Each structure stands twice: as structure tokens, then as C-alpha cells.
Amino acid sequence: MLKKIDHIGIAVKDLNEIQETLLEGFDLSPEFSEHVKDQMVDVLGFHVGESTIEYLSPTSAESPIAKFIEKKGSGLHHIAYRVDNLQRTLDHLKNKGFRLIDESPRDGAEGKRIAFVHPKSSNGILIELCEEEKK
Q1: How far apart are CA 128 and CA 65, in angstroms?
Q2: 49 exposure class (CB count in 10 Å sphere: 0-12, 13-18, 19+)
Q3: Domain spans of the chain, in order of start
Q4: Is 8-77 assigned to CATH 2.60.40.10?
């Protein structure tokens, strides 16, 4: 069901600050930058080896990321796992009694289809499931 860790999402107030820190301290430049309108978030992505770190900055006070930062401060927001068939995985989890934030896939960064599992069903950890765009 889970193919691999796709990325780790980190909530930050200011993408420019984190970009400067990573460039100056680690000589790391972003691989992609994107605005995800329906999530009210700007994303700055860095590939490190086979892993991806997504830094997420809210574009609205109503954004889930803004609410997360207000409550918990900047930091680890979610871990994302890649799956082969996102809808089938969501149906399986729902049938097993998992609480889902998204019962059907929606658009995410880098053309992926995504859905979130509620932290109350996953020991307090926000889990994102993602499927690569079909080409």
C-alpha cells in the first residue's frame, strides 16, 4: 500500500528566511516553488538525495498552515507517503475506521493528487497520502 516516504512538510512563517538559511548554511537551492491556491499556501521544495522537504508558508490567516503555526509555531507539519492508488487507499482506511480529512483526492504541489488522514486516527501525526500525476 505505501510505496515510500514522498516528502516531509514543514510549516514556516517566511519562505525567504528558510531559503536564505539553507543556501547560506548548506549550499542548498530550492528545486521548485509553487502556490497551491485551494490550500492557501506557498510551497518551497528541496530535494535532498531521494527525499523531498517541502516548506509551507500560509498565504491567508484562514490557511490550515497559518492555524498550525498560530497554535504550535513553525515546525514539522506532516509526513507524506506515496501510494499507487490514492482512492483505493482512502476507501481501505475508511473501511478500517480511520478518520479522514479528505475522503477523495485533491490537487497538491508538483501535480500530485493528495489526501490527509486525521491525526486522531494516526497517533497524533498528520499523514498525507499522495499519488503522482498520471502521465
Answers
A1: 14
A2: exposed
A3: 8-77, 83-135
A4: no
3-state secondary structure of 7: strand
Q: What is the pLDDT of residue 125?
A: 96
8-77 and 83-135, same CATH topology = yes
Please give the model's pTM, rounded to 2 decimal places: 0.90
Taking 50 as the pLDDT cut, the residues of the chain under it are none
Q: Phi/psi at 84 (nearest 5 deg)?
A: -75, -45
pLDDT at 1: 84
Does residue 53 contact residue 8 with C-beta atoms inside 8 Å?
yes
On whether the CB atoms of residues 126 and 119 are closer than 8 A, the answer is yes
CATH for 83-135 is: 3.10.180.10
